[in-house]
Amino acid sequence: MSVINYYFAPISGYAYLGHQALMDLAREAGAQVSFRPVDMGRVQKEAGLRRPFDETSTSEDRIADRAAWAQRRGLRISPVPMHHPADPRLSCRVILAAGQLGLDQGEVTAAILRGVWAEGRNVADPGDLCEALNQIDMPALEILRRAETEAMRDAADDLNRDAIEKRILHSPTYVVGGTRIDGQEHIDRLRDVLGRAAA
Fold first, then answer.
1. pLDDT tens, 42-90?
2. Rounded to an integer, what distance in angstroms lies between the CA atom of residue 139 and that of residue 98?
3. Among 4, 17, 1, 191, CA closest to 109
4. Residues 6+ apart with CB under 8 A from 51
5. How far, CA to CA in Å, does 22 sit from each of 121, 130, 150, 185?
6. Are strands 179-182 and 32-37 parallel, antiparallel or unpaired?
7. Rounded Cα–Cα distance for residues 155 and 2 (Å)
8. Is residue 173 classed as helix, strand or coil in its secondary structure?
9. Model confidence over 137-170: pLDDT tens digits?
10. Is the pTM here over 0.90, yes or no?
C-alpha cells in the first residue's frame, strides 16, 4: 500500500481546496494518508523566506484563483475569511489527537479547513473548534483534552521540525516515496505517481 505523506497548514485555503480531492484519490488508489499538519508560518520563517505564509492577501489574482478552484471542486469559499490568519497550533494538535484516538483525521481536517474558509470560524478558539467537531459528530471535548497534552505538543513540534528539515514550503505538499508534489493543483500528477507505484 502506498503512503501519501500529507503536509499542510490547517488554515490554508489551498489545502481546503484540495483536501477532498486528495481523500477521494487515496480511496480510489487504496493509498494510506499520513496526516502531517504544520505551522507553515514557522516552517517558512525558519527556511528564511522573506514573505512567510500568509493567505490574507486580498489581491484580485489570489481571490480569483481560489474562487475558480472552489467552483471547479464544488466548494463554498469566502474570498477573505473572517478569522484568518489564525494561530494554527491548536488545530494541528487536534488533527494529531484525532488520529491517536482512532478517529477519522480526514473528516476532522475537513471540518477545520471548512470552518476557516466557508463557515467563518476562528480555529484558534477552542469553542469554535468544538462547534466544528460537534457538527461532524466527533467527541470534541475528548479530542481537545488530548490535544492539550504534552505528548501532542511534542508530536506537533516534531512535525514542524520534520517539515523544516525537508524544506516543505507549500501547503499542501504530498510526498510518496521519493516523489514530492507541491500544490493541490497538481493532484493529477499524484494520481500518476500512485498508479505507477501500484503497477
1. 998 888 776 555 555 567 888 899 999 999 999 999 988 988 889 999 9
2. 9
3. 17
4. none
5. 23, 25, 30, 11
6. unpaired
7. 23
8. strand
9. 999 999 999 999 999 999 999 999 999 999 999 9
10. yes
Task: Give 186: exposed, middle or buried? Use CB within 10 Å, 0-12, 13-18, 19+.
Answer: middle
Q: Can you say how many angstroms the Cα of residue 38 is from the centroid of all Cα atoms in its chain?
A: 8
Cell 463557515, residue located: 119
Cβ 170 vs Cβ 6: under 8 Å: no
Alpha carbon distance 128, 41 (integer Å): 22
Is the predicted pLDDT of residue 22 greater than 70, yes or no? yes
In this prediction, residue 185 carries a pLDDT of: 95
Are 37 and 95 in contact, with CB atoms under 8 Å apart? yes
Sequential DSSP letters for 12-41? -HHHHHHHHHHHHHHHHHTPEEEEEE--HH
Burial of 81 (0-12, 13-18, 19+ CB in 10 A): buried
- In this predicted structure, the answer to whether residue 34 has a pLDDT above a threshold of 80 is yes
φ and ψ of 175, to 5 deg? -125, 125
178 near 20, Cβ under 8 Å? no
Give the C-alpha distances (Å, rounded to integers) separating 39 from 28, 29, 48, 178.
29, 28, 15, 23
Q: What is the pLDDT of residue 199?
A: 65
